[in-house]
Write a structure and sequence with these properties.
This protein is of the alpha+beta class. β1 and β2 form a beta hairpin. The chain is flat and about 35 Å long. The N and C termini lie far apart (about 30 Å).
Length: about 70
């Protein structure tokens, strides 16, 4: 899994044309890992999206988003 994420990051950073394929590999590994451990990703992702919509962010001096509340 770590290697696949590294490959996807490298493809993104270097603007390689196979970024989509690398992201698909990460997705497939992640899905398999969740399935092997009985984690229902659909429900967990829905909860995380709901939680994240209540958070607020501000940009720091470098332009990075910094969480300012867990609302």
């Amino acid at each position: 899994m770590t290697a696949e994420v590294g490959e996807a990051f490298t493809a993104w950073r270097e603007g390689l044309p196979d970024l989509g394929e690398e992201l698909a590999d990460v997705f497939l590994y992640l899905t398999a890992l969740a399935e092997m451990n009985g984690v229902g990703l659909d429900a967990v992702v829905a909860r995380e999206i709901e939680k994240n919509t209540r958070r607020t962010y501000e940009r720091n001096e470098h332009g990075a988003l910094i969480r300012t509340s867990d609302a």
